[in-house]
Write a structure and sequence with these properties.
By secondary structure, the chain is of the alpha/beta class. It has helices spanning 11-25, 36-45, 62-72, 86-96, 110-121, and strands at residues 3-7, 29-33, 50-54, 78-82, 100-103. It has a domain at 39-104: 3-Layer(aba) Sandwich (Rossmann fold), CATH 3.40.50.2300. It contains 5 helices and 5 strands. It has a 5-stranded parallel beta sheet with strand order 2-1-3-4-5, with helices on both faces. The longest helix has 15 residues, at 11-25. The radius of gyration is 13 Å and the shape is globular.
């Protein structure tokens, strides 16, 4: 079974993403965490097929989590999802090792892009 981990500090948003990923993937196992530090810990402990991470989170940003994950796992697909300062964060995220990105502020296309990332990597 495919497995996905989602890092998002807003619990309601995180739960919404998890339901959507499960639906789009046909039932992947989805784990949820609320900060970047816990994300890095969980990815060290287990092999995931895909990571979704917000940037602005407590304890460790998504950007710094990507840098940390790439130190021990250079191949796992990571999708950065950000709404704040999207134009500034995305180039940094891609340079750090993100393989995809979604602008959370693009409400019109968000669901379609989320589904596209799930279909691309799972």
């Amino acid at each position: 079974m495919k497995s996905v981990i989602i890092a998002e500090d807003d619990e309601k948003v995180r739960e919404t993403y998890a339901r959507a990923v499960k639906r789009f993937s046909g039932g992947a196992e989805v784990h949820e965490v609320g900060d970047g530090e816990t994300l890095v810990e969980k990815v060290r402990e287990r092999d995931y097929d895909l990571i979704f991470t917000d940037n602005d989170m407590p304890r460790m940003s998504g950007l710094f989590a990507i840098v940390n994950i790439r130190e021990f796992n250079p191949h796992i697909p990571i999708c950065m999802m950000s709404g704040d300062k999207f134009e500034e964060i995305m180039p940094e995220a891609m340079k750090a090792g993100a393989t995809d990105y979604i602008d959370k502020g693009d409400y019109e296309h968000f669901t379609e892009k989320l589904k596209g990332v799930v279909n691309k990597y799972l």
